Amino acid sequence: MPRTPSTARLIQQLYAAGISSTSILEMLPCVVTGVAAPEVLAKLHGHRSSVVKQIEELQETLLQLDTVIAGATKTCATGVPCPPS
User: Fold this and answer.
1) Considering the entire predicted model, what is its pTM?
2) Staple 36 to which of 6, 28, 30, 62, CB 3.0 to 4.6 Å?
3) 84 within domain boundaries
């Protein structure tokens, strides 16, 4: 398999998403050929679902963090503490 910067980046992203090295090794031929056995394709779909869930959870965290930042910014600007939530 050719090692290109895009392949290396993909591997890093898959690790960051919590995908095991064994699973990554199984899916790498698909990256090169575009062909996957049904069981590998099923695993790919499972990993995709996990990534979607992680994204949704991070989006919720981002909204909460934005609320905290907005309150803290208001406090800095006015000197009036935020009311407890």
Assistant:
1) 0.67
2) 30
3) no
